[in-house]
Amino acid sequence: MEMDIRQLLIDKTTQVVRGSPGNLVMADIAQVPEAADMQIYDAPILGFGSADDALFDDFKQAGVIGPHHLSPRQWMPEGQSLISFFLPFTQQVRTANRRDYTWPAWEWMHARIEGQAFIAELTTFLVEAIKDMGHQAMAPLLDSRFHQGSAPGTEANDKYNSNWSERHCAYVCGLGTFGLSRGLITEKGMAGRFGSVITTLPLQATARPYTTFDAYCTRCGACIPHCPPDAISLEHGKDQAKCGAFVAGTLAAHRPYYGCGKCQVAVPCESKIPKARQPQ
Ligand code: SF4
Ligand code: SF4
């Protein structure tokens, strides 16, 4: 029975992604002709998790995310289950961002802004669909308590973290593991966006096919030379401050548009889990 509900949610979500005009960049707002009527996302993948997963305690540790990260039960005390989805960017979005490694493509920035509006639309749809089944549901992204960046009293190194991490929720729900560039590598790769819902609906958790946070990253280093501000290194991973400053520069130039994502394209983890290198 539970499996049927999970499949129903997957089918409904996929229908919305395939059929909604919100998944297109309308011609009248396209900043370049190539982006007119561009589809932003391909079909989603979904994972399910428990609201009581002990990993959420780990995320509160300084150096993981921090104490400002709220657990599912803090968002929704009666919540039982998590639904996490990943929407992979279409090939058009991904290939456009491979052209120039100094500045984000307009197609990518559209996918970042109109794509985020579509994440909100899809999340709202899921919440309402679950309520129609007689259960409660909420989405941290749409809650008034949600904030990006630092909360009062948080450590300085938390300032780039929000109080709900979609990628960490996706990790809990079995969707993927972190890469050197701090994106999450899923079976559909890293280039795309995540969303989530917390619900009272009892759902069987997806088995996590990994035990370490970076199991799918081969540390091939292909993302390192793509990064305009040299924010990624094998020794230190990603320098959030350097990345944030570069992305802020794109916002200053193109407000309300911004983005980068050079570390997510033309790399082995762009649209799949990379294969580990064979020993020489
Ligand atoms: S490009 Fe290579 S090193 Fe960078 S995140 Fe992907 S798999 Fe890891
Ligand atoms: S998003 Fe851009 S600036 Fe940030 S780590 Fe990736 S390539 Fe570098």
How would you sum up the major sheet?
4 strands, antiparallel
How many beta-strand elements? 8
Count the domains: 1
What would you report as the Rg, rounded to the nearest angstrom? 18 Å
**What's the helix count?**
7
Folded structure, characterized:
The chain has 280 residues and is α+β, with helices and mostly antiparallel strands. The chain has one domain (2-264). It has seven helices and eight strands, in the order H-E-H-H-E-H-H-E-H-E-E-E-E-E-H. The protein has helices spanning 2-19, 55-59, 72-75, 91-96, 106-132, 166-172, 240-254, and strands spanning 45-50, 81-88, 137-138, 176-178, 184-186, 192-199, 232-233, 237-238. The strands form three sheets. A four-stranded antiparallel beta sheet has the order 1-2-6-3, with helices on both faces. A hairpin with a 5-residue loop joins strand 4 (176-178) and strand 5 (184-186). Helix 1 crosses helix 5. The radius of gyration is 18 Å and the shape is globular. The chain starts with a helix and ends in a 26-residue tail after the last helix. Bound molecules: iron/sulfur cluster (2 copies). The site of one iron/sulfur cluster has 14 residues, from loops.
What is this structure's SSE topology?
Elements: H1 2-19, E1 45-50, H2 55-59, H3 72-75, E2 81-88, H4 91-96, H5 106-132, E3 137-138, H6 166-172, E4 176-178, E5 184-186, E6 192-199, E7 232-233, E8 237-238, H7 240-254
Antiparallel strand pairs: 1-2, 2-6, 3-6, 4-5, 7-8
The structure holds iron/sulfur cluster (2 copies).
One iron/sulfur cluster binds at residues 181, 226-229, 231-232, 238, 243, 246, 260-263.
